[in-house]
UniProtKB/TrEMBL annotation:
Pfam families attached to this UniProt entry: EF-hand_7
All copies of domain EF-hand, residue ranges: 8-43, 44-79
Molecular-function GO term, any one: calcium ion binding
Record keywords, A-Z: Calcium, Repeat
Protein name, UniProt field: EF-hand domain-containing protein
Entry GO CC: myosin II complex
Family matches, as CDD domains: EFh (cd00051)
Highest taxon, organism lineage: Eukaryota
């Protein structure tokens, strides 16, 4: 999954993921992702959201599964630290 996160951090990410996976289908759709990003303070417009999906939806399902979410979280944290 990711060498960047501890087991506790992965558990926390899973809890967050499950909270925003409102229909419990194992993925976060475009609307759910937008809500999650807004809650964590990452303002993104429609184009930015499309860009994130294009970059992190590696299986091209149209949504973000947990493994893809971990990669996205890693990048968001990295960007927050460097800003």
């Amino acid at each position: 999954m990711s060498d960047q996160f501890s087991d506790t951090e992965i558990a926390d990410l899973k809890e967050s993921f499950d909270t925003f996976d409102r229909n419990n289908d194992g993925s976060i759709n475009r609307r759910e992702l937008h809500s999650l990003l807004h809650i964590v303070g990452h303002k993104v417009n429609a184009k930015g959201l499309e860009n994130l999906l294009a970059e992190y939806d590696v299986d091209l399902s149209g949504s973000i599964d947990f493994n893809e979410f971990v990669q996205l979280a890693q990048q968001l944290i990295k960007n927050k630290i460097s800003n």
